[in-house]
Write a structure and sequence with these properties.
With 132 residues, the chain is mostly helical. It has one domain. Helix content is 73%, strand content 0%. It is built from six helices and no strands. Helix 1 runs parallel beside helix 4 and helix 2 runs parallel beside helix 5. The two termini are 27 Å apart.
Length: 132
């Protein structure tokens, strides 16, 4: 629920600050994702074997947390710097995503495993229900 709220807050900021078309939102989202995870949302969906499904529904807890961190950091950067226009929004998105990316890399180093995963959270949960 909080992830949805954080996303809506971010897209509201984008709208107020100059993002207008669906393509603008896709570009900004891709910048956050590339900086946070090293892949765009479409590459991430492909990695997880998704077609039309919602990527967030198939992320595990860490993937969601780092996604939320990148989006929330980006929102706060926009507000702090009173950003306007796509060029600045894109730079902010890269910076917000990098904050999440740096945190993800630190955790990966500590856990000695990647966070970005081919595992599909929803499918794993469904298969666990069938076993019980």
């Amino acid at each position: 629920m909080r992830g949805i709220a954080i996303r809506e807050e971010l897209t509201d900021e984008w709208k107020k600050r100059g993002a207008q078309e669906k393509k603008d939102y896709e570009i900004l989202t891709a910048e956050i994702s590339k900086a946070a995870f090293g892949v765009t949302p479409s590459e991430y969906k492909s990695l997880k074997g998704l077609k039309r499904e919602n990527l967030r529904d198939h992320m595990d807890d860490f993937e969601l947390i780092f996604n939320m961190l990148g989006e929330r950091a980006t929102t706060e950067i926009h507000r702090t710097e009173d950003s306007e226009g796509m060029k600045k929004l894109k730079t902010d998105a890269q910076e917000g995503g990098s904050i999440a990316g740096d945190a993800r890399k630190a955790l990966e180093k500590r856990l000695k495993r990647p966070i970005v995963s081919v595992h599909n959270y929803l499918k794993e949960k469904e298969s666990q229900k069938k076993i019980k």
